[in-house]
Design goal:
Elements: H1 2-16, H2 20-23, H3 28-60, H4 64-87, H5 98-118, H6 121-130, H7 132-158, H8 165-201, H9 205-232, H10 234-242, H11 251-284, H12 288-311, H13 317-341, H14 343-354
Length: about 350
Amino acid sequence: MFSICFSPIIFMLALWGGEYFKILQHPKAFYDLENDYFQIIMFGQIPLLFKTSIESYLIGIGKSRIIFTASVLGFILNMGLCYLFVLGPLSYLFKGATGAAVATVVSNCFALLFLLVSTSWKIHLHAFCTNLQSFATQALYAGLEKFSTSFFFVLFVNMFVVYGPEVNSAVSIVFTWDQVAFLPLVAIHRSLLSLYSRYLGKNQMLTADRILHSTLRATLILMAIFSVLFLCFSQNLIQLFSHGKESILDPVQIQNMGQKLFKTTSCYILVVACIFIYKAALRSLGFSYWCFKYSFAIHLLFVSASYISVYIFKVSPYQIWSYFMGMLCLLALTFILKFYFDPSLRKMRIAKLETTPE
């Protein structure tokens, strides 16, 4: 329902939202390509919105295998189409990165179609309609939080364009490798959201807490491994993208900038892990609106401070990057303090513990 309601908004953003590249004072040479890429990706958010809604419901009822199959098939199709549209025989149809954008949209549509065909919706329709109000309330705030977080992040990344192509390339490379650590966190967040909610519904608070803290320990260990890899092999990871034969950029400057950013990346992925874990627990306890409210406020403060610092005070890119680190730490601390020390939440958890069957 919300996917249908928000589709016209996404459509309008796709048509006119590209103007914000001009507000960020990007070079004219980049504007046409950026605007085309932005419009394709934004139009592709409409099927992605429906896909995310269906996946969220299937996770809640324990049908994660269907989601995994759809994601894998979509990923394989995306990789194949990216080659065809960017480097392969069909590359003449598209301009640069727009081919990759079209491939992403097509693969998302395929994954959505697979989910629709592979699930017997008649079985789940009655349960869904019975709990429609609860689903709608929680899903609205969770969706708004995800949208606003992604939007603010895109704004932040695009601010680095004003520092020159070398700095922008270094930031892009670091965030590209950061996705390798970020994607497992998304899967862990969804799985924990399903498991924690399931045992809360059974009034098994002790089991739910054990699952939470076990997941937290395992996730921090996984992120620590990524941290070591980023610290030890940062130079090699950057060189994979910064030494093209026809590149006109300075690889030494990209290397120096990228290595400094990787040092902080190896630390902040541990903080991001805490954000994902405790956000899943708070959403399971019914605090989706609270998570959205504070996440939106902190991200808005961060992006506003970054914009003023970049375009008015002309600070260095390292200082803007430090704002990003500080924002993540503040967000993680907010979620952790809410979970362990909020009086109303503590009473709720104690009440559930008292009703937990032996």
